[in-house]
Write a structure and sequence with these properties.
With 106 residues, the chain is α+β, with helices and mostly antiparallel strands. The chain is 26% helix and 37% strand. The strands form 2 sheets. The chain has a 4-stranded mixed sheet.
């Protein structure tokens, strides 16, 4: 039996950097930027793939939750394309949780 290689619906290519797998080159690029900001002292640390529960058993995973040295916290998604489904999930997420999801396009 041969395994069929799965393709991302928007042809995003998974990337591995520093032994960490990212879903896209854009997400890896943002992680590189956050690592630089961490070395510079602007970012204390960040979490990856932060899950949120949405109605109907739907889970939304935010790419990064970033903790800045000034006390601010941001939720950031690296997105090349904002689909209608994503826009709906973003709206529900922001209505359910006291956050503003930032879209990073590189």
């Amino acid at each position: 039996m041969t395994m069929k290689k799965l393709r991302h619906k928007f042809n995003a290519k998974a990337v591995t950097k520093n032994f960490i797998r990212y879903d896209s080159k854009l997400e890896a690029k943002l992680a590189t930027k956050l690592d630089f900001m961490k070395r510079e002292g602007e970012v204390l640390f960040y979490l990856r793939q932060v899950p949120f529960d949405l109605p109907g058993g739907v889970k939304y995973r935010c790419d990064f939750q970033v903790f800045y040295s000034n006390g601010e916290v941001e939720f950031i998604d690296a997105k090349g394309i904002e689909t209608e489904v994503f826009k709906i999930k973003k709206k529900i997420l922001e209505e359910m949780y006291p956050i503003k999801l930032i879209i990073w396009k590189g």
